[in-house]
UniProtKB/TrEMBL annotation, chain A:
Domain of life: Bacteria
Family: Belongs to the CcmB/CycW/HelB family.
Keyword hit for Iron: no
Gene: ccmB
Function: Required for the export of heme to the periplasm for the biogenesis of c-type cytochromes.
Matching PANTHER family: CYTOCHROME C BIOGENESIS B-RELATED, HEME EXPORTER PROTEIN B
Predominant localisation class: membrane
Keywords attached to this entry: Cell inner membrane, Cell membrane, Cytochrome c-type biogenesis, Membrane, Transmembrane, Transmembrane helix, Transport
Name of the protein in question: Heme exporter protein B
Organism taxonomic ancestry: Bacteria, Pseudomonadati, Pseudomonadota, Alphaproteobacteria, Rhodobacterales
Organism listed in the record: Albidovulum marisflavi
Automatic annotation (TrEMBL), chain B:
Bilayer-crossing regions: none
Keywords assigned by UniProt, alphabetized: ATP-binding, Cytochrome c-type biogenesis, Membrane, Nucleotide-binding, Translocase, Transport
ABC transporter domain mapped to chain residues: 3-202
Organism: Albidovulum marisflavi
SUPFAM superfamilies membership: P-loop containing nucleoside triphosphate hydrolases (SSF52540)
Presence of keyword Transport: yes
Protein name: Heme ABC exporter ATP-binding protein CcmA
């Protein structure tokens, strides 16, 4: 498992691994939105939680099809299915590697980009916390979607359509958590819901993803 | 423990290709599958490897004792030869990759990134992976594709060493490896009867 995690991280960091892609996309979204919305600080600050969460979600979506597609094309997935580690571990590990290369950098970069969107200072800690709690769910749900579409040529469109509805609860509770934090309201409920979604998907989806891969390898 | 296949029927894309195949592979033996293109050699190997379920029949197999090598080698082009091989050695829980590098004559290429290898060198790396798996039964699908004569001899030597160590190989190949003790199984008589080859419903659309 460590070997697989290290290999995926190495591959992501080497040339053509697409490590910077999600982060660059997130940066572009948050830089462009103020230009589109205009310089009124009040409006910008109010929509900032939603924009930051939508930006993080789309940035995450961008790199999903790489999770299994590359391994499928070069035959690694076939060999992995006959290797001694169970496919459930493989899917969970690959989701973890995806989170370490997209979700974690997004979480760390979000406060800096919050400044660009005039996010009130009270929201910074809640933004970081909600992203840290919510983005693992994005990676795990995305890995499941990627496993479902792994054998398809140009499966990216189908993958996005499959995964987007599953992302909506995370988005709602994540953005709501930040909004409540900004307004000084209690944030426990959305944060707990977010945590529940994350823990639920981490507990169930590795098995679903492994089953989907087994079907797709036939 | 032997690998035994009893009365196996298999399908590709929902269409039965082979029926009632029975074979036994004992330690120290090599079995070569022959047959025209499309008869189902790859499908048979994938079924025995557990990558797809058979239509009927049983596969008696010591669990976790099979290494499969298909058409694709599972090589990451941005990793070096050593990194690729060491990854598989760690996945299979075996330590030393030096004997595998030496056996497939890859020592001189060890630090080269895999994308700079030729097709034949990549194949050699793919076959070296078999040596680090430590598995007893090798299922090989056209292992000699894009290998030159010298590399084929190198591979034949690796297979013979594996056999003498108590291993066994089941391979689909069209060329003669020069392994005297290898038996040949022609799959043509096992071709599924045309009546059985009814279209497999919607499965074919997704094949």
């Amino acid at each position: 498992m460590t070997a697989l995690l290290l290999r995926d991280l190495t591959l992501a960091l080497r040339a053509g691994g697409g490590f910077g892609l999600s982060l660059a996309f997130f940066l572009i979204v948050t830089v462009l939105v103020p230009f589109g919305v205009g310089p009124e600080g009040g409006v910008l600050g109010r929509i900032a939680p939603g924009i930051l969460w939508v930006g993080a979600l789309l940035a995450c979506l961008l790199s999903l099809d790489r999770i299994f597609a590359l391994d499928y094309e070069d035959g690694t997935l076939d060999l992995m299915a006959t290797a001694p580690i169970p496919l459930e571990t493989v899917t969970a590990t690959k989701a973890l590697a995806h989170w370490l290369t997209t979700g974690l950098p997004l979480t760390l970069a979000a406060p800096a980009l919050g400044v660009l969107l005039n996010l009130p200072t009270a929201g910074f800690s809640w933004l970081t916390l909600s992203l840290a709690v919510g983005t693992p769910a994005l990676s795990m749900i995305g890995a499941f979607g990627a496993a479902l579409t792994v054998g398809l040529k140009r499966g990216g469109l189908l993958l996005s359509l499959l995964v987007l509805p599953l992302y909506i609860p995370t988005l709602i509770f994540g953005a709501d958590c930040v909004r409540r934090g900004v307004e000084g309201l209690p944030t426990t409920t959305p944060l707990l819901m977010l945590l529940g979604i994350t823990l639920g998907s981490v507990a169930i989806l590795p098995f679903a993803a492994a089953a989907a891969i087994r079907v797709n390898l036939r | 423990m032997d690998l035994t296949v009893t009365d196996l029927s298999i399908a590709r894309g929902g269409i039965p290709v082979l029926g009632h195949v029975s074979l036994t592979l004992r330690s120290g033996c090599a079995l070569v599958l022959r047959g025209p293109n499309g008869i189902g050699k790859t499908t048979l190997l994938r079924t025995i490897a557990g990558l797809q379920p058979p239509l009927s029949g049983t596969i008696g197999l010591p669990s976790e004792d099979v290494a499969y090598a298909g058409h694709a080698d599972g090589i990451k082009s941005t990793l070096s030869v050593t990194e690729n091989l060491r990854f598989w050695a760690r996945i299979f829980g075996t330590g030393d990759i030096a004997p595998a590098l030496a056996a497939m004559d890859l020592a001189a290429l060890a630090e080269r990134p895999a994308h700079s290898l030729s097709a034949g060198q990549k194949r050699r790396l793919g076959l070296a992976r078999l040596l680090v798996t430590g598995r007893r039964f090798w299922l090989l699908d056209e292992p000699t594709v894009s290998l030159d004569a010298a590399s084929v001899a190198l591979f034949a030597r690796a297979v013979r060493t594996h056999l003498s160590n108590g291993g066994a190989t089941l391979m689909a190949t069209h060329i003669d490896l020069g392994i005297a003790e290898a038996e040949v199984l022609d799959l043509t008589p096992f071709r599924a009867a045309p009546s059985a080859a009814a279209p497999g419903g919607f499965d074919e659309a997704f094949a």
